[in-house]
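Researcher: Next entry in the queue.
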Amino acid sequence: MGSNTDLENKNNPSAWSVFLSREGLIFQFAVVLTSAISVFVGIKNNSIPVEVRINTLTTGGSFSFLMWLALSYSIWLNTVNNFFKNFSYFFAIVGPIGILTILANHQMSEILFWWNLVVWSVVTIKLSLPKELFISNWERILLTFSMVWAVTSTMVTIGSWHWFPFSVKATQRLSGLVFFVDIRLLLGILFIIAATGTAIFHALIQERPILKEMDPWVLPIPDGKSFFLSLVPPIIHVINVLLVVFHAIVELLWKSIQLLVILFGRIGVHLAKLIKKIATQYTTWISTGRSLLTLLLIVISFYLIKITSPSFFFYLSTSIWKEQIIHLAPIIFNVFMILLCVWVITSMINQANIKSVGDAAIMSLGWLLMVYLLGGALVYGFYCLGLDITGYENIGIFSVILVLLIVLGIVYALYGMQKKNKEIEP
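Model: Structure for this entry, 426 residues:
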């Protein structure tokens, strides 16, 4: 009897045990961190510049985005207990890209660019290159090099856009140190040289080609016993000697042309086969494309966070609903765009159907909104206790929207449970 009770308690943990679990503590930490950021940004009578407060909001938004990704990934895999582990992975791999995007014009952007390029190349190769491929080791090296070329070209191209120019400093310095202009061009030339060298090697180790020989050039000696005909053979012998020498030179040129045509033909065939073999690794290239699309969406998400932070700051700095609506409109739009990015990124990472990942992305957004709501309520409690914080004189319109969403969610859940119970009843 006792064992059944223990099993029932294990399957239905109490609210207190959930509250003290690792996930519960992480949730509480997120609420406290959100409250601390809100107090830091909104507290009056301090000398902290507005730029520093906006950068603080950008940092908090970046952490929220990483938590959003990790929670969506964990919910999709039904492994919420591994949230902290997944968050650590995202923080180590995705976090530096966020720093690079936000600090695109900073002096550190050059070092961050090369660091992210190396990390993302390794991650792409690790996730996209299968262990078993029906190609030689050298062809595997060329395939890996072409993947690095694709990652580098993508990062340099994305980082050269004026929205997030994080690769400009690195590429400008590199072009000033060496003879080439663009690292994408350099890697392309190196790949072509390596592939052509491989084709030349395979062409040279083939069997020696059989070259066609030219017919000899010899003038016949006329038969006859006349005095005139007796004078002709010496002249013909001299001409034949000259023809033999000229024939040897022409034949050498002819065989050289044949050899070059055969050799270049073999090189072209081997080069075409090599490029085709590398290009037709469809699984590898599809995974590489997923990785590059994920990189682009991550950069776009951090950029949206960066441009949303000022609006969020001015939203927190006012208690007038009319002004809040003006600042809240771009926030809602950008959050919706980030939701789409999280949705697609999670499906790319899991290599799943994008339709089936939406619930996880939306559910994790609900958890984040709950964190913001509780954090705002905690800050409002501090305000009621006498802490002078801007924007908390009354409930904000964002909090009203969150409360309405939560109420609608509870009503929908209760309606679904009631409908399900009616279906179960005989």
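Model: The chain has two domains: 2-177+281-394, 206-279.
Researcher: Noted, moving on.
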